[in-house]
Amino acid sequence: MHPACPVYQLSFEPEPGFYFGAMFVSYAINTLQFFFAWGLLVYFYPSYSLVHMLSLLFGVVMLSLPFTFRLSRAIWLALFVRYDPTWEKK
Q1: pLDDT for 89
Q2: Beta-carbon neighbour count of residue 73 at 10 Å?
Q3: 3-class secondary-structure state, position 63
Q4: Does residue 39 belong to any structural domain of this protein?
Q5: Rounded to whole angstroms, how far apart are CA atoms 30 and 9?
Q6: pLDDT in tens, 22-55
């Protein structure tokens, strides 16, 4: 992740430990992924085993980890830094 926005020079690290809260956002996203993947497994393969379920969940998490990491940080930053459409006019 860049330390600052190349256009607006907004610091993406407002304070040390700022993104600590992003792990809760990531937890929520991963929980939704778990339920979705588990629901698909139950629907398409009703006689699944524990090994199948854990393998599927592990694969879903590992494949989506880079996306989830960046998305959770972006959501957390968007909660605290508001977009100002009149910034260039100032």
Answers
A1: 61
A2: 19
A3: helix
A4: yes
A5: 31
A6: 999 999 999 999 899 888 888 988 888 889 888 8
Query: 74 CB contacts (<8 Å, ≥6 apart)?
Result: none
Distance, CA of 29 to CA of 21 (rounded, Å): 13
In a domain? residue 53: yes
Q: Are the CB atoms for 69 and 27 separated by under 8 Å?
A: no
CA distances from 43 to 11, 35, 48, 67 (A): 45, 12, 10, 26
Q: Which residues pair with 11 in a beta bridge?
A: 4
Domain that holds residue 55: 34-80
Position 83: which residue type?
Answer: Y
* Tokens 């860049």, located at residue: 2
Q: What is the pTM of this model?
A: 0.74
Whole-angstrom CA distances from 46 to 40, 49, 56 are 9, 9, 14
Contact 22, 72 (CB under 8 A): yes
